[in-house]
C-alpha cells in the first residue's frame, strides 16, 4: 500500500509554448497542486520584445514576462506594475512593458545570461514553479514555404501570406541552438508534457526545433498532450484540421510523438468575433478524429471554449481539469496555498 506522501505526490507538468495561450493555461494550473515548468520560446521578434532584442541583444522577454506573472504569488497590484505598458505618447518608452525592461536590466546587470536572470527574477516574484527560456540566447525562426522560398524572422514569416512547409531555428553565431540542462531535466522527469495552446509554427515549433528539446520530448516516458487551437490562423494554419496540426508536429520531429489531443467541439457563435481586433484568426478548426487516430492519438473532445472581449479563447480551468484527469489527480485536489 502506498504511503500518504506517495499518493499525494505533485504531478510534474511541463508546458511548452509561447504567445497568449501559455499564461492562460499556467494561471489555471497554478490553482492545482502541480509542479509546473514552463518552457518559453525565445524566437519572438515583434512588438516591445523585438525592439529590446534588437537594441540590447537579449532574449525577447515578452512571453517570459507573461509566464512569470501567471505563476507569481505577488499581490495583484505588484503584478500589474510588472505588466504595465507605457502609452504611445510616452515616446521614449512607448509600447514597452515595465517587466520587459526589468528582465533586460537584470540580464545585463548580472552578466550571466537570460536563464540566470529569469531564475533570479522568479525568486523575487515568488513564482510557484519554474519559467525556463527555451535557450540561453535569442534565436531566429526560419521558414521554407510550399513554393520553395525561405524567409527569416517570426514577423516576416506570418506576414508572407504563403503556406509554410517547415520551420527551424538558428543562433546568431551559427552554432546549433541548445537548451539549458535544467530544461532537458524537467522534460525527462515530467509526468506530463503539454504543448500549447498557441501558434503552431511560431510559438510551439520554435521550442521543439531546438535539437535537444525535440529529442527529449520524443524520448520522454511522460504522456505528451497537444491542446489543439480553436481557430485557424492567418499566415500559419489556414484551412487546417486538428489532424493537420498534429501531422505538422509529427513531421517536424520525424515520428508520431503526440499521445493525446484535446479538441474543442463547442461551435463559435457566428459573427461573435471582432474581426478587426482579432484579425489573425480565420475559421474554426475542423475536426478529423479519424486522421488523429491514424497518427496514434487518443482524442479528448469537449467544450473548452471561452468567449470574452469579442474574442475566442480556451477555458483554462476546463482544459486543466482534463489535464489533471490524465495525471490521475482528482479534480477536487487543489493547492491550499493558492491565493
TrEMBL record:
One Pfam family cited in the UniProt record for this chain: CofD
Localization terms from the record: Cytoplasm
Superkingdom: Bacteria
Predominant location category: cytoplasm
Any one GO CC term of the record: cytoplasm
Entry's Gene Ontology BP terms: regulation of cell shape
Keywords of the record: Cytoplasm
UniProt keyword Disulfide bond, yes or no: no
InterPro entries: CofD, CofD-like_dom_sf, Gluconeogen_factor
Any GO molecular function: LPPG:FO 2-phospho-L-lactate transferase activity
SUPFAM superfamilies: CofD-like
Function noted in UniProt: Required for morphogenesis under gluconeogenic growth conditions.
PANTHER family: GLUCONEOGENESIS FACTOR-RELATED, UNCHARACTERIZED PROTEIN YVCK-RELATED
Family recorded in the similarity comment: Belongs to the gluconeogenesis factor family.
Protein name: Putative gluconeogenesis factor
Organism annotation: Ligilactobacillus saerimneri 30a
Amino acid at each position: 500500500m502506498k504511503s500518504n506522501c506517495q499518493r499525494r505526490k505533485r504531478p510534474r507538468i511541463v508546458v511548452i509554448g509561447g504567445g497568449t495561450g501559455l499564461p492562460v493555461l499556467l494561471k489555471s494550473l497554478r490553482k492545482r497542486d502541480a509542479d509546473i515548468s514552463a518552457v518559453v520560446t525565445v524566437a519572438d521578434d515583434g512588438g516591445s520584445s523585438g525592439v529590446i532584442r534588437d537594441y540590447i541583444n537579449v532574449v525577447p522577454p515578452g512571453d517570459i514576462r507573461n509566464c512569470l506573472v501567471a505563476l507569481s504569488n505577488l499581490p495583484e497590484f505588484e503584478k500589474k506594475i510588472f505588466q504595465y505598458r507605457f502609452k504611445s505618447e510616452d515616446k521614449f518608452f512607448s509600447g514597452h512593458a515595465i517587466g520587459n525592461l526589468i528582465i533586460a536590466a537584470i540580464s545585463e546587470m548580472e552578466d550571466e545570461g537570460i536563464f540566470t536572470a529569469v531564475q533570479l527574477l522568479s525568486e523575487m516574484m515568488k513564482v510557484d514553479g519554474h519559467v525556463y527560456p527555451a535557450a540561453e540566447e535569442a534565436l531566429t525562426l526560419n521558414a521554407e514555404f510550399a513554393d520553395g522560398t525561405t524567409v527569416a524572422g517570426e514577423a516576416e514569416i506570418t506576414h508572407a501570406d504563403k503556406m509554410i512547409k517547415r520551420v527551424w531555428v538558428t543562433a546568431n553565431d551559427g552554432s546549433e541552438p541548445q537548451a539549458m540542462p535544467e530544461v532537458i531535466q524537467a522534460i525527462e522527469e515530467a509526468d506530463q508534457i503539454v504543448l500549447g495552446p498557441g501558434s503552431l509554427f511560431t510559438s510551439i515549433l520554435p521550442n521543439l526545433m531546438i535539437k535537444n528539446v525535440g529529442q527529449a520530448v520524443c524520448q520522454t516516458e511522460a504522456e505528451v498532450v497537444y491542446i489543439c487551437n480553436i481557430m485557424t490562423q492567418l499566415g500559419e494554419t489556414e484551412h487546417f484540421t486538428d489532424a493537420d496540426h498534429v501531422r505538422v508536429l509529427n513531421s517536424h520531429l520525424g515520428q508520431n510523438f503526440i499521445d493525446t489531443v484535446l479538441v474543442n467541439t463547442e461551435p463559435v457563435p457566428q459573427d461573435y468575433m471582432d474581426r478587426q481586433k482579432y484579425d489573425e484568426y480565420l475559421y474554426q478548426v475542423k475536426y478529423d478524429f479519424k486522421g488523429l487516430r491514424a497518427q496514434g492519438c487518443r482524442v479528448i473532445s469537449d467544450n473548452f471554449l471561452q468567449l470574452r472581449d469579442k474574442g475566442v479563447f480556451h477555458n483554462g480551468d476546463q482544459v486543466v481539469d482534463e489535464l489533471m484527469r490524465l495525471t490521475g489527480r482528482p479534480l477536487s485536489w487543489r493547492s491550499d496555498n493558492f491565493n
